[in-house]
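Section 5.1 Outputs to date
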Amino acid sequence: MALLENIIIHGSLYAVIVNLYLFALMVTVSPRIWAYADYPKSITDRVPPQTSREKKIGGVIMIPFFILALGLPVLSTIMLEASYGGVIPLLDAFLNIYGILLFGNISEVLIIDLLIVGTITPSFVVIPGTEDLRDTEYKAFRLHHAKAHIRAIVAMAIVSLVLAGILVMV
């Protein structure tokens, strides 16, 4: 399978899986747990800080997310390496991991952040006590979170390079 084809197929699958996991969290867990730190200060200043219990629960529920977030691109790269006959160039390994992560990042910002939280703003994304901000600050969330995703692009490049290096050396 060619590199670009691998990125498109596995990136699309990755985007669906990551977004479904995040959406399931959004619907079933309080936004005080899954997204408190992601909301703008104008929203979090209106409510009490996260409790230590909320932070712990948030950390636990994000473990599967990070396993998926890193594990799927690594698995894809291992599969790509096998299709190359067992040896993959560092650049191809990097581009595969990075491309897949970009699929997830772009789809998350478009679907979860801009559409669901920033445009539709259903009640399950509103932190209790900030309901009156639904049509103002939650709409401003779009720009706030888009900026965070742009910064994440640099971090994803570094993570991708490290993971690619490990996979090429192993």
